UniProtKB/TrEMBL annotation:
PANTHER family: BINDING OXIDOREDUCTASE, PUTATIVE (AFU_ORTHOLOGUE AFUA_1G17690)-RELATED (PTHR42973), FAD-BINDING PCMH-TYPE DOMAIN-CONTAINING PROTEIN (PTHR42973:SF39). Residues 69-252 form the FAD-binding PCMH-type domain. This is Oxidoreductase. Keywords: FAD, Flavoprotein, Oxidoreductase. It comes from the Bacteria. One of its GO terms (molecular function) is FAD binding. The keyword Transferase does not apply.
Length: 557
């Protein structure tokens, strides 16, 4: 196939195929032909191909995390249709890149699984972003190149429906959903994959032949059912190129939502008892999680003291007239119960994933869609390092002390200059609720008994992309913090070493290559628990040549 550059000035390529159809009123085949022609391609193809001379090329070889690039990439394939995705994979194989290609959606991978020096070809599925209802199959669908924002907007505006997915607007659905997916409505509705009933995915067989497959939870073939199940939490980049997700049913979107932001000044925490006062905030959050009901989702932002405040963001959904119910009485009574009622007005930005937004008023009673918009933030493109953990119970005293130590700690670089940790934090999210009503083996998500999901985060900016001494200082801080937090379990949240049965591994959508220092098998067990053997079986069955791989991908054995 001849390579084509996407070069023509004024080409009608800013939207999706769905957008073009809406504007032109033409048949899909006719619209696609026009779209490809405008892009400088030739008839009969559903694929655009960029090389380093294309103006878009450099922008598509870096993701959200500015630490990672693909400096040796030679080509970017952009499928316009799901058939074009299969065509892209065929081109990858015939071009000699079968061992050095990666798939890009939203570009939010925390590690260098997509963008690294070994990557030679990229398949970017961003233009596969349609969301709607398939009458022929009788299901709702979302293509893998769509984002969380695409998902929420189209499901709500077209159908009054929603999914318990993430809140970062630009995160791609391709990786988010197959890793499990969760967000601010998961206590009420479960994980994203708890609603998944079908997947369209391009696989590569042992003869390196690419084929687009449709597998569901009702597939008659056992191997097809295995491939479907592997996408209910098995993580991206493991089994094939996902083009579409399907959902037989969806929850109805809430009508209203209260947004409550609690804030404590670090100066008050330190003066009020330091670690013991911080422990009171943690106890408060645990009480709210266990007794607040499934309509409440909370995010505890334990920001470094140099950020000025610790915050809790609470979203409480409800139906009926605005003001007909309120979570405020419970929120306030628990503050008094735990002796942490000296909250102050929130100030400064709300930092970190999965919610990054301007400072909000302490209380707003919204229509639900307005809350989706307000908390729909990915933050700036920046550099970051992340770690995760699940917890089945509250924080023991030694962990409270460790949290306080690292959030009030000052560090200097090799020249004695202070390291700016004001964008570093431990975020604790409420979990449990409907999530924990599903058996660990029903989906590939093993963690079904936790009450908290933790995300350790540190962010920094440098003038240049890639590694830096500044970044090394931030990474050292988060590594030391994490290792000391889980010192009793071997330096990681390993349930096999926890006699108290509190920690329960890590979240694959928050990948952390540091876990490999404890052995790759241990890292995978932390992500997948008892589901790992079945995921390995799926890998052997559907990707026998290990064409889909990265630093922490599912192995063949």
């Amino acid at each position: 196939m001849e390579r084509r550059n996407f070069l023509k000035a004024g080409a009608a390529t800013a939207g999706t195929m769905a957008g073009l159809l809406a504007l032109s009123g033409k048949s899909e085949a006719a619209a696609r032909t026009e779209f490809v022609a405008a892009a400088g391609g030739s008839a009969g193809t559903d694929l655009l191909i960029f090389d380093p001379s294309s103006p878009q090329f450099r922008g598509l070889t870096q993701g959200f995390n500015r630490r990672w690039t693909a400096p040796n990439a030679a080509v970017v394939f952009v499928p316009l249709t799901e058939t074009g995705a299969a065509e892209a994979l065929s081109n990858v194989v015939s071009g000699g890149w079968a061992q050095n290609f990666r798939v890009r959606g939203g570009g939010h991978c925390y590690e260098d699984f997509v963008f690294n020096a070994d990557t030679r070809a990229i398949i970017d599925v961003s233009l596969l972003n349609r969301v709607g209802y398939d009458a022929a199959r009788g299901c709702y669908f979302a293509q893998a190149g769509g984002t969380n924002w695409d998902l929420y907007r189209h499901l709500y505006w077209q159908f009054g429906k929603t999914l318990p997915a993430g809140s970062c607007y630009s995160v791609g659905l391709g990786g988010h959903i197959c890793g499990g997916g969760y967000g601010l409505m998961s206590r009420a509705f479960g994980l994203t994959v708890d609603w998944l009933t079908g997947v369209d995915v391009v696989t590569i067989d042992q003869n390196d032949s690419a084929q687009l497959r449709h597998v569901t939870n009702q597939s008659s073939n056992a191997n097809d059912q295995l491939l479907y199940w592997a996408h209910t939490g098995g993580g991206g980049g493991n089994f094939g190129l996902i083009t579409r997700y399907e959902f037989a049913e969806l929850p109805t979107a809430p009508q209203n939502a209260e947004l409550i932001v609690l804030a404590w000044n670090w100066s008050d925490i330190i003066a009020g008892g330091g670690a013991s006062y911080l422990g009171g905030i943690l106890d408060y959050f645990q009480d709210l999680t266990l007794n607040g009901g499934n309509s409440i989702f909370g995010l505890l932002k334990l920001n470094h003291s140099s950020a000025g405040q610790v915050k809790i963001i609470i979203q409480a959904n409800y139906d009926g007239p605005i003001g007909s119910t309120s979570a405020l009485p419970l929120v306030n009574s628990l503050l008094a119960k735990h002796g942490v009622a000296n909250v102050v007005e929130p100030r400064g930005a709300i930092i970190g994933h999965p919610v990054s937004a301007p400072a909000s008023s302490a209380y707003v009673d919204y229509r639900w869609w307005q809350v989706v918009q307000d908390l729909n933030g990915s933050g700036d493109n920046q550099k970051g390092k992340y770690k995760s953990a699940y917890m089945r119970a509250g924080f023991p005293a030694n962990q409270v002390q460790t949290i306080y130590k690292y959030l009030t700690q000052s560090r200097t670089d090799s020249s004695g200059n202070p390291v700016d940790l004001s964008s570093s934090l431990l975020q604790v999210d409420t979990y449990a609720g409907q999530i924990n009503t599903v058996a660990p083996t029903a989906t590939a998500v093993w963690q079904r008994s936790s009450i908290f999901k933790l995300q350790y985060q540190t962010y920094w900016q440098d003038q240049t992309e890639g590694p830096s001494a500044n970044g090394d200082n931030h990474i050292a801080w988060i590594r030391d913090f994490y290792t000391e937090m889980y010192a009793a379990y071997g330096g990681i949240p390993d349930p096999a070493q926890d006699q108290t049965n509190n920690v329960d591994g890590c979240y694959i959508n928050y990948p952390d290559v540091d876990l490999d220092a404890h052995g790759p098998a241990t890292a995978l067990r932390l992500y997948y628990g008892g589901n790992l053997p079945r995921l390995i079986q799926a890998k052997r069955t559907w990707d026998p040549n290990n064409r889909f791989h990265h630093a922490q991908s599912i192995p063949l054995a």
